[in-house]
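Narrative of accomplishments. A recurring question from our advisory board has been how the design workflow behaves on a single, concrete structure rather than in aggregate. To address it, we present the structure tokens for one chain from the evaluation set, followed by the sequence designed for it. No filtering or post-editing was applied between the two.
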């Protein structure tokens, strides 16, 4: 199992990503699309979004996975300390058509 070597740097980067991510924009899009999560019994609040994003990012800490996601979010670990957070409304690749 690959483990993050520098946990302080990892968590600093998680905090930075969460601070810079535009949760307001995601929340507005989800409300406009009436995008509901079962765990919230409706459109999630901004705090639900933040909590879910933090959970996904921290799940990468001691995981073999470099990418995890749910509810439109994808968290990616690019190295032992660099992380990325995405929110996707639509996605397609050639694998869908084979």
């Amino acid at each position: 199992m690959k483990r993050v070597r520098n946990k302080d740097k990892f968590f600093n980067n998680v905090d930075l990503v969460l601070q810079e991510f535009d949760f307001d924009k995601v929340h507005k899009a989800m409300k406009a699309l009436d995008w509901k999560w079962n765990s919230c019994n409706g459109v999630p609040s901004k705090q639900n979004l933040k909590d879910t994003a933090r959970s996904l990012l921290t799940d990468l800490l001691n995981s073999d996975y470099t990418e995890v996601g749910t509810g439109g979010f994808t968290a990616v670990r690019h190295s032992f300390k660099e992380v990325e957070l995405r929110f996707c409304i639509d996605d397609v690749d050639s694998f869908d058509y084979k």
